[in-house]
Design goal:
With 318 residues, the protein is of the alpha/beta class. Helix content is 42%, strand content 15%. The strands form two sheets. An eight-stranded parallel β-sheet has the order 1-9-8-6-5-4-3-2. The chain has a three-stranded antiparallel β-sheet with strand order 7-11-10, with helices on one face. The model has no long low-confidence stretch (mean pLDDT 96). Bound molecules: flavin mononucleotide. This is Probable nitronate monooxygenase.
């Protein structure tokens, strides 16, 4: 597949980012994706700066290829995590950002020669980011696993492509070559996938969580946090059903207090990843889970997705 100048400049073989998933995307997964020719991205989530430093060391020990870090802007450790990334500027090729506006950190990253690629849920945010001078944006639809916006990928991507004159990467609901081909047809230059990499052999989430993604059908995801704030797409399990029941009950009160529900959610992704417990763990995953039904190496995933996209696109110009 012929890559756009932007993807060529990242020195990649495939126009595919592996989403920087909190607690899931560690140094091992990121290095495996980068070694196979995609962009591996370590998810820093709410982890401490020490954990992030450790995962960067792990990635560095496993690959000489470029890799990135996802910075979760809502993290209480965001400033210390960014300090670590800046110290590691010779190893970190790019930063993707989630849950907010990274403007205040942009100058420091640019000075360190680290590219900044925010995840955007709307054309408005995409325009603001382009004006601020980011290198590209990831337009992520609400089909995706994890925290979500309101737009669907199909509607969001072409509108973001029209709104900005920087490269657009599509995310949300892309699980195979047809999704990659469709994204290119919508004007994106590449894609970011999360859910498909959850089941990669090199992804070390708890086997019970992985099995749930492999077995999930199309309608097996729920959105938690619709009432309590910060909506997130997860697989249906005891934890997510309880969470939604609690928050709905609270929302019906004249003075809702969501602190109990928030308590339930705190650390729930980490528990899912580390213990697999479906009672207290959030199995974050996207609507494309129904299509993701075999465990493969990241190299097989990248090759299969790209080959299928090439076949799907056939003679179309892209
Ligand atoms: C378990 C999980 C955790 C995630 N954590 C983050 C995160 O910390 N920061 C972020 O920007 N995106 C996060 N995402 C979103 C992914 O990076 C990616 O954009 C998304 O999964 C793409 O949609 P898909 O799941 O349909 O492939 C997460 C997704 C999943 C499934």
């Amino acid at each position: 597949m012929e890559l756009s100048p932007f993807f060529k400049s990242l020195d990649l073989r495939y126009p595919i980012f592996q989403g920087g998933m909190a607690w899931v995307a560690d140094g091992r997964l990121a290095a495996a994706v980068s070694n196979a020719g995609g962009m591996g991205i370590i998810g820093s989530g709410h982890a401490s700066a020490d954990i992030v430093r450790h995962e960067i060391e792990v990635a560095k020990s496993l690959t000489n290829r470029p890799f990135g870090i996802n910075v979760m802007l809502l993290s209480p450790h965001v400033k210390e995590v960014i300090k670590v990334i800046l110290e590691e500027k010779n190893s970190v090729a790019l930063v993707t950002t989630g849950a907010g506006n990274p403007s205040e950190y942009l100058g420091s990253f640019q000075k360190a020669n680290i590219r900044v690629i925010p995840v955007v849920p709307s054309t408005g945010m995409a325009r603001i980011m382009a004006r601020e001078g980011v290198d590209a944006v990831i337009a992520e639809g609400m089909e995706s696993g994890g925290h979500i916006g309101r737009m669907t990928t199909m509607a969001l991507v072409p509108q973001v492509v029209d709104a900005v004159d920087i490269p657009v990467i599509a995310a949300g609901g892309i699980g195979d070559g047809r999704g990659l081909a469709a994204s290119l047809m919508l004007g994106a230059q590449g894609v970011q996938m999360g859910t498909r990499f959850l089941v990669a052999e090199e992804c070390h989430i708890h086997p019970q969580y992985k099995e749930a993604v492999l077995k999930a059908k199309d309608i097996d995801t729920l959105v938690t946090g619709k009432y309590a704030g910060h909506p997130a797409r997860v697989l249906k399990n005891k934890m997510s059903v309880d969470f939604i029941r609690h928050e709905k009950t609270e929302a019906q009160k004249t003075e809702p207090d969501f602190s109990g529900v928030e308590e339930l959610g705190n650390g729930s992704l980490r528990r899912a990843v580390q213990t697999g417990d479906p009672v207290t763990g959030s199995y974050m995953a996207g609507e494309i889970s129904g299509l993701v039904n075999k465990e493969q190496t990241v190299a097989e995933i990248l090759e299969e997705v790209t080959n299928q996209a090439d076949k799907t696109l056939g003679g179309y110009a892209h």
